[in-house]
Amino acid sequence: MSRTNGYRGVSRAAAAKHYDVSDDFFRIWLGPSLAYASALWDGEDDTLEKAQLRKTDYLLGQAGVRQGSRVLDVGCGYGGEMQRMVADYDVESVMGITLSKAAVAWTRNLAIPRVDVRCENWADHRPAHPYDAILCVEAMEHFARPGMSGRAKVRGYREFFTRAREWLAPEGRLVVQTITWGHRFPMDLDLLRGLYLASQVYPECNPSYLGELQAASDGLFDLVAVRNDFDHYGRTLQCWLANLESDYDRAVELVGRRRTDDFRTCMTTAVRVFQEGWFYLHRLTFRPVPRPVGPARRFLVNNVIGRDSLPTPKLLQRRPGAI
Fold it and tell me: If you ran DSSP here, which 8-state letter would residue 295 be given?
């Protein structure tokens, strides 16, 4: 059995069902950049393309990407971040991994210098050298499947954080942009119906809670920057919907009316879900700890430190162990 203990996230078949549909269909509503992730908005007069570029530059800045960097892009999509890194940051190399064969073919056709892109699960990745930065842009939603317990999800995420820390140079950074659960319940029937449809359009997808990511990274990384831009996702989705509506007939020609309507309904529901905070959009910056240890024994911290007498150093030691 692999070191991931079976926590491999979404299957290639499930990824293909959603992502390997039609590049031209996605281009209609995502726009020419094909950036399939929330933008970072600034002001009422901002445009989708400018906001997507701002998002990319924010993430690259948080990751410390600069001239000569070696970068891993987990869930690299159609290669927008990789293009930016080569053209404007003069990186030494970028490795992109994704489970979408269509995205791999698209990116390879771009022939971006110093970029290698593979159809590969993160659990199978074996780097040839340490990375100076790792990006994971809206891929972590696919690291856990529906029905998994919170404990199982944390174990799976910890496998990823363990690998990421091993892959990083000591001064490297891991930057994650991910959809997370917000104030999850209660929801009305319309939202529940929309989320059920989303589970069919995005099979085997189960977002995390922020606390699950914090628990999974404990002892491996310090979380040094956090921002929650769920309203930015609502605005991004409104732009995608407007693009789809403006070229609806062409979209139907490409993928059929049912699939087009399913995407439209999912995005319509998602606008409300993000605007009202049922889902959050977290952008997280992680710095590897100098020496990895096991997760904190929280019962000791809560029960011992709260007493009048100080605990002994032995009680406060963090030891390797399962969560």
Answer: P
Locus of tokens 């570029």 = 53
Please provide residue 93's backbone torsions phi and psi, each rounded to the nearest 5 degrees.
-160, 155
Q: Is 242 exposed, middle or buried (0-12, 13-18, 19+ CB in 10 A)?
A: exposed
- Per-residue model confidence (pLDDT) at position 22: 85
Confidence (pLDDT) at 322: 46
User: Is 87 strand, coil or helix?
Assistant: helix
Closest CA to 285 of 148, 145, 134, 181: 134
CA nearest neighbour of 135 among 122, 145, 144: 122
Q: In what order do the strands lie in the sheet with 168-181?
A: 115-119, 93-98, 70-74, 131-137, 168-181, 279-288, 221-228
The alpha carbon dihedral of 135, 177, 138, 221 has a sign of positive
Q: How many CA atoms lie within 13 A of 191 on its CB side?
A: 15
What are the tokens at 105?
Answer: 């073919």
- Cβ(245)–Cβ(263) below 8 Å: no
To which residue do tokens 């992680």 refer? 286
Write the CA distances from 44 to 29, 231, 239, integer angstroms: 20, 13, 13
What secondary structure letter does DSSP report for 277? Answer: T
Q: Identify whether the C-beta of residue 114 lies closer than 8 Å to the C-beta of residue 100.
A: no
In DSSP terms, 233 is beta-bridged to: none
Give the residues of the chain that fall short of pLDDT 50. Answer: 1-6, 312, 315-316, 318-323
Q: Residue type for 40, please?
A: L
CB count within 10 Å of CB 136 equals 23
* pLDDT tens digits, 102-159: 999 999 999 999 999 999 999 999 999 999 999 999 999 999 888 888 899 999 999 9
pLDDT for res 21: 79
